[in-house]
Design a protein that fits this description.
The chain is an alpha/beta fold. The protein contains 13 helices and 8 strands. α7 crosses α10 (202-213) and α8 (161-172) crosses α9 (180-191). InterPro entries: RsmH, SAM-dep_MeTrfase_MraW_recog, SAM-dependent_MTases_sf.
């Protein structure tokens, strides 16, 4: 599951790879930065304290108290707009110098049992970042067995997806699966648990959350929206928390990574001018940060600087986006 990126406490939250993100977006004094995944406001606060102005975006209404605190602390340099980062270029009220995206579920969402994100707490099997659309319970109780298995494999890389889907279909024939712990216990009973391993429901919960919230669609949309929004020299920093997301970001910055290999015996296809410079290198948390926050172990930052090349038409081709017939 994607690691948390926020906190519901009153204390200022320090998000993962903060120094690296600030460095990727520098210089910040006087810059205008769009924080497309506001959460608890950790990146926004740090950007504001570094002298930037921030336009923050989030679709989760529970973040409003954090936005109100920043509005009070930085009344002239902070603005919050509700919405999804997949259309951040439409939400921006003018040009920006940089965009930061922190992909995944926040601590606020994990910590609130009623949101249904965590298999560690009893709650309704919901997982919606907003209140719209199908819930995880809707998918678990309505998808055909093959579609559910495909979803768990494609979005969660769950190798035992067929066994889990079969067990879910058998269980829901008696009564709907309605809570997080009900599903987690069923998965653990079905595939077992070895000492020291992650909880056996981890990958399945990740897959359901991604499907419920259309997270891969949001990520691709946000990347291309950033490319449309940023002019030459604009900077984009993206923090991801699992390999599926990181692969998409890597190939977005460097399309050649996902392009078919050209045969030297055939006429060579001319590649388009790159849209991003100084892009593609993956940055991970250092030993000091890992010591302070073990959750940062799975975080990866990739960043790039916009070139003069015109923005591309949005396309999934070559990005390695997982496909699932059962996805929402």
């Amino acid at each position: 599951m994607s690691e948390p990126k926020g906190s519901d406490s009153q204390a200022p939250h320090v998000p993962v790879l903060l120094a690296e993100v600030l460095g990727a977006l520098a210089p910040l004094e006087g810059a205008r930065i769009l924080d497309g995944t506001f959460g608890a406001g950790g990146y926004s606060r740090a950007l504001l304290e570094a002298g930037a102005s921030v336009l923050a975006v989030d679709r989760d209404p529970s973040v409003l108290p954090h936005a109100e605190r920043l509005s009070a602390d930085f009344p002239n340099r902070f603005k919050f707009v509700p919405g999804t980062f997949s259309n951040l270029d439409e939400l921006a009220d003018g040009p920006v110098d940089g965009v930061v995206l922190d992909i995944g579920v926040s601590s606020m969402q994990l910590d609130q049992a009623a949101r249904g994100f965590s298999f560690m707490q009893e709650g309704p099997l919901d997982m919606r970042m907003s209140s719209d659309g199908e819930s995880a319970a809707d998918l678990v109780n309505s998808l055909a067995e093959s579609d559910l298995a495909n979803l768990l494999f494609a979005f969660g890389e769950e190798r035992k997806s067929r066994r889990i889907a079969s067990a879910v279909v058998a269980a829901r024939a008696n009564a709907p699966i309605a809570t997080t712990t009900q599903l987690a216990r069923l998965i653990e009973k079905t595939i077992g648990r070895k000492p020291g391993d992650a909880h056996p429901a981890t990958r399945s919960f990740q897959a359901l959350r991604i499907a419920v919230n259309g997270e891969f669609d949001q990520l691709v949309g946000g990347l291309f929206a950033s490319e449309r929004l940023l002019a030459e020299g604009g900077r984009l920093a993206v923090v991801t928390f699992h390999s599926l997301e990181d692969r998409i970001v890597k190939r977005f910055f460097d399309p050649e990574k996902g392009a078919p290999t050209q045969s030297r015996h055939l006429p060579q296809v001319m590649l388009e001018a790159p849209r991003w410079d100084r892009a593609g290198k993956a940055l991970k948390a250092g030993a000091a940060e890992l010591g302070r926050n073990p959750r940062s172990r799975s975080a990866t930052l990739r960043a790039g600087v916009r070139t003069t090349a015109p923005a591309r038409v949005m396309s999934y081709a070559g990005l390695g986006v997982p496909l699932s017939r059962g996805a929402a």
